Amino acid sequence: MAKRKGSNTEVDQPSTSKRARAQSGQDEEVVPKMEREEEDGEESVMNLTQGDPNLMHPNEMREAEYGIIEAISLKNFMCHSRLEFKFGPNVNFVVGKNGSGKSAVLTGLVVGLGGKATITDRGKSIKSFIKHGQNAAEVAIRIRNRGMEAYKPDEYGDAVIVERRLTQDGATSYRLKSIRGKTISTKRDELSHVLDHFNIQVDNPVSILNQDTSRNFLHSRNPSDKYKFFLKATQLEQMSSDYSTIQEQREEIQATLRTKEETVPQLEKIVSEKEQRFKDLATLQELEKKVDGLKNMYAWAQVHELEKQLEPLAKTIKQEEARTPKYDQKVQESMKKVDAAEAKHQDIQHKLQDLAVKVEALSPQNEQAKANLKLKKDVCKKTQAEHRKVLNQLKTTKRDREQVMERIDEMRNSVEQDYEAERRAREEQIRMLQEQLQELQAQQTTTDHQIEQFAQAVSHYKEQLYSLKRDEQDIQNNTRQQQRRLQDLQSSRNNSLKRFGSFMPDLVRQINQAYQQGRFHQKPRGPLGSCISLRDQELALAVESCLKTLMFAFCANDHHDEKVLERIMRGVCPEGKRPPIIISRFHERPYDVSANRVQHPDYPSVLDVLEIEDPVVSNFLIDQRKIECVLMIKDNREARQVMQVQRPPRNCNEAFTAMGDQVYTNRYYSSNTDKSSFLRVSIEEEVQETQQTLQRLQQEGSALRQQLAELDLDIRKNQQEQRRHQTQKMKTQESINKIQYEIRDLQSVEEPTPVDVSTLEEEVMMYDEQIGNLEDNIKTIETDFNGQKDDLAVAEEAYHQIDQQIRELADSADPLKDDLGRADIEISQAKQHRKHYEQKHKEHLKKIADMQKDHDKHAKKVEEETGKALQICPERLKVRRTAKNIENEIIQINKRIAQEEVKRGNREEVTRDYYESREQFWTIKDQIKDLKRFLKILDEIMGQRQQLYKEFRRMLALRSNQFFINMLHQRGFAGKMKFDHRGRTLSLEVQPSESNRQVTKDMRALSGGERSFSTVCFILALWDAMESPFRCLDEFDVFMDMVNRRISMDMMMKVAHDHRYRQFIFLTPQDMNKLSHNSIVRMWRMPDPDRGQGVLPFERRADDDDDDNRRN
């Protein structure tokens, strides 16, 4: 820091870099509607005494202990490579010319505290703030955290350091550190808790007023914008939004209350009926008493017979207990079937996953095999080239040897010649030969390049050939499938059931015969797709996508019918194409789904678009698929809008589009097919489409075959050209070798000396040795080449095998997907069977328990009767009435008791039903009572809150208006803030001169400087009503003249001095040297912008350290 002479103001000059601007729009928030209220009389404030604003707030001379910004650091942010500020606790000025990058401080503050890019009006996305040429940017902000209101002081200490990192891919991360630099949290929620605790409002346009917002607000003449500004600044808008949310929840509770109240009369009627049945049981008790009396009379005669009756009861119990293992076995078998079905389902899923894993695992092998094949080809080509090269060398060496031998003979038979003439002729010949050699070498280079091009073309054409052969195979498979489908469609012209398979008419015929023969309890329905029709043919694919395998399914009334139907299917249906069977109890009356169905003004449900004559089928689809709760929305975009963007309709969790796509609230699945197969009315249209598809496939096959022939011709042509150029290359190489030898021969001629051929003879021996080495080398190369050809064949086979495996894996996934659908149905059926046998097992055990209870009862009765008889007479006595007579009377009475029980129901069930229904009735009554009491309390609280909200809004308006009047008064202005809470408008009326109080001007009639000054007064008034610990203002004085600027600045300084517990940060391009300073002001001066300068270094003056020490 550098301290300015003659002033207590601290002037800091940070390091900065080139400036980069970004533009963006400003987010708009919609203010929720409030209830109409009476006109507030704020105009009465104009008659209040226009005194000192200090009377409105206590002049606290201590600085803030928490929530203010102590420092900010920017790295690679906007135009700055690195920029650091240490703010004072009260007034801070950032002064700099336009282009110096001072607005980046305000933008960094918003972004660093988690604000969106659109709030700053400086960029459309977070990554736009990263300095050009850099990959990431960082913003670090230190927030004071002292005193009694500190946030988690044990963890953070005296300051909370918030760091945010931005990257070019749009990612962002947070780190919240303690004053010692320890990371406490990396979650965005922790930052929200810190901001809420300190009451820091990053998106409050008054708390942090940037350039564009300030400029737009200064030029805005719309009173509603000012009113929105007021609501956001005072957080009244957030309070209104919270109240609206509570009201929505209240309406939901009210709907629940109405539903419960509607069920009360029906429940009351049910309780009354069951109470009457409970009272009718009293007559049975009288008959039972009479039976007890007859049994006492029967005494000894009955004792003997009762003892005999115990034996068959015990035998029956043993018989039933002997059947228990059978029931256990059935339960175990059904559980095993469930486990087997689930294991099968899981196994299919694992197979599909394994196929995907195998394909993924084979992909690198395929690439490696392909690369290995290319490598082997290159090795073979290189070996061939080496072989040709060695052959040429062998020929050249042999020719050179012959020429040396001829030279020896020539030298031995030669005579003296004119050596000078011969030398000149020899030099001329060498020059000509060298020119020919250069020409031939250039031709050789061109030929090598052409050979490589032809080889690459052959390799490329072979890859295309292999790919086209695979495409041809796919077309042949599709053609066979379409031909089979065309046969099925043509045969279904007379019988629509053949759409579901050629075996389906025979299956339905045998089901009808079995029903006529009485083999079914109820006639099974199916295939279900043939039992329904559409009101709108455009939704055929949507309905098929919704019902899926249920289109083929049959429904049976019970397990008996299911077994009969399964035996018929085994004899009719091909293996793997057996339709699923689902057990569901038949109901002849359609379900009433009016209370639970989805209702939408624009889109129908599946139940609405179907025409179903059989109520059994409609009830079955409601049970199995809930077709009353699934919407049909033709347009994909509208379906996403209804299900995902908006709140989905009540009782609806999914929808289908005309394209067959399935839309959930948070997911979207595209259809695997684009055509309907079963619900289309016109078979001729399907036949025509299939024929067109076949014709298209045949045309594509012909075109592919033509392409294959052309590729094969191109391969042969390129191979022929490759061989021709290789032959040409060999010939050219021979010419080159010959010329090179001739040149060496001419250059080796020496001055005539006595004939000495020993050197040439040694050269012949050397050539003989070279010829032997070359012949050995040729044999080695040929051996290697044969091995390389074998490796090449192995590599080609490996590549083709892996590629074939990938194709086979992809083809094998389709039947597994069909098996997965059938496995789902098998699981459902197995669980139903398990439930059936578990219920039978439970009934069996209950039967044994009842029989044992009867046995014990009889044994006890024998003992009781014997005891009673012994009490009457120790010896057995015969009664006057025969045992048979007494027995018949007892039987008659028991029959009457049994008839009454059949008529009135089981006593225990009647009693239990009565008490349960009565308990349910009173539970509903208590719930209704509690809900009414809760709603009453809620209405009272919300009424109080609404009144308090209006009063709070009125007081804030009065407070802001009074502060506004006092601020205007400091310059001799008069005016007021006129609120219209019903119209949601706020207008400023200002009279520049207090001399004429009769004429009040609105903002449009003021000059630019007067309007700017009035706006500053308005902002200061809102600041007074705002609880944020700091206020930021950017270029507030850009449209003011010198007089208004000085008055506004003095006024803001006065407000800042009176609010020492608040922090103020002002950004301005104006010179602040003439500002009346004091010790609470800290000033930062930005360097002038330099377009050619990367980083601007600054030196700290000596007195800065003293200043910092005194301040710390």
Structural write-up:
Helix 8 runs parallel beside helix 16, helix 9 runs antiparallel to helix 16 and helix 20 runs parallel beside helix 21. Among the domains are: 402 residues, Rossmann fold (3-Layer(aba) Sandwich), CATH 3.40.50; 162 residues, no CATH class. Helix content is 60%, strand content 10%. The strands form six sheets. Strands 1-2-24-5-23-22-10 form a seven-stranded mixed sheet, with helices on both faces. Strands 4-3-6-7-8-9 form a six-stranded antiparallel sheet. The chain is flat, with a radius of gyration of 50 Å. It contains 22 helices and 24 strands. With 1112 residues, the chain is of the alpha/beta class. Strand 8 and strand 9 form a beta hairpin. Keywords: ATP-binding, Chromosome, Coiled coil, DNA damage, DNA recombination, DNA repair, Nucleotide-binding, Nucleus.
Distance between the termini: 14 Å
Instruction: Estimate the mean pLDDT confidence.
Output: 78
Output the CATH class name of the domain at 2-242 and 951-1111. Answer: Alpha Beta
CATH architectural category of the domain at 2-242 and 951-1111? 3-Layer(aba) Sandwich
By secondary-structure content and strand pairing, the structural class works out as: alpha/beta
- What is the makeup of the main sheet? 7 strands, mixed
Strand content: 5-15%
By DSSP (H or I, 4+ residues per run), the number of helices equals: 22
Low confidence ranges: 1-13, 15-60, 1092-1112
CATH superfamily membership of the domain at 2-242 and 951-1111, which one? P-loop containing nucleotide triphosphate hydrolases
